[in-house]
Amino acid sequence: MLTDKGQNDAEAHLRALDQRHTLHPWTHFDSFEKEGAMVVESGEGCYLKDANGKSYLDAVGGMWCTNIGLGRKEMAQAIAEQVEKLAYSSTFVDMTNGPSALLAQKLASLTPGDLNRMHFTTGGSTAVDSAYRLVGFYNYCRGKPEKTHIIARDQAYHGSTFVTMSIGNKAADKVTEFQYLRDGIHHISAPHFYRAEGNPTEDEFTDQLIAEFEAKIAEIGADKVAAFFAEPIQASGGVLVPPKGYLKRMWEVCQKHDILFLADEVVTAFGRLGHFFAIEDEFGVVPDIITTAKGLSSGYLPMGAMIYSDRIHEVISQGDENRWFTSGYTYSGHPVCCAAALKNIEIMERENLMQNAAEVGSYFEEQLHTLNDLEIVGNVRGRKLMMCVENVKDKASKELFPDEVDIGKRIATTAESMGLLVRPIGHLNVMSPPLTLTRKDVDFLVKTLRASIVEVTKELRKEGHL
Description:
Distance between the termini: 48 Å
Helix content: 40-55%
Number of strands: 15
Structural class: alpha/beta
Largest sheet: 7 strands, mixed
Low-confidence stretches: none
């Protein structure tokens, strides 16, 4: 057994290796060179332990993804058994495997409407990337090759491939050093009611958003607009919950103009809102395409899926006998990943985790709103196990702190010192804990986050920011 010094030395060694050799996703070069990264050693349930033995409640849920919790022995066994039986086989052209076929059927039984067709990918980014290609392919096949334009929203995040980063429109992600696809991709306002200009009612705000969508379609030409890409709740863009009826009305506009509706459920599917898929159960919309990942395997192995309707399949699969769908990935339908996803869904159903997510999620939502009395908490929003706290300098004006204050990070760092991990995104703190969260966990989470915000508020006052 390592002594404390031995643990510290081992942690420092790993951190140094990481600093020397690893380019992390979303690396901030200056702070990374100064501080390095936390070395995570192990995880069980909702908790992580670092290489020094300190335990943390992971309210981030990995990256919106550890839905059934970490350290599941039956998951490890299912993965190991599949590795021994068949570690890999290609699914290109005319080959498949048992787990891939069974997972496709299982997902078809859970999806809304006639979304019965699966294209397996390596994650959420590749699922949305594949969907973008399918949209153009579908319209070409039905004799509308000019119908290729995409409309998405500000503050959207749809992935980190070239095209999906272009479809997304978070200002913080669109750095000047990278190039993006501009032609054929358009953006309209996010349904961010807290930041709506002119103090409209929620119904008035929805009317404005629908009118903007109609105007954008008219500007481009309905004969050229192929699809509307939308997260049911915008996740990384700030957990933006749309006004009541907004998504249904956007879908109706799509129906009127022969525009495909894509629901990006990479985050919202598999229990985050208490449903396997949220777009119909929570928002009353049956889309044409759903993209998913993350909770599909609860992060145990990389896995994603583009799910599309029988109606689309009928168009793309008929007509030209020499037609090929030339898109896919070496690891599409990977047997071990599919086995993990099947076991993941089995656990969710057996343990009734959808109900737990709904019940404990409602309690979490209720308790987190108690933070509204704090001086710098401007807005608490979200649903169930997908929540966000927006921090402001002035509640009345909703003025933000200057970027250099890095308010979200300061609160997250303070919370980390108290054994809680929350995700900082600019002036926000975002939470997406596992579906196995308990009321006791919620009480610790909210109490600790409150203490962290209070502590940071004191520091800000001393520094003259308040």
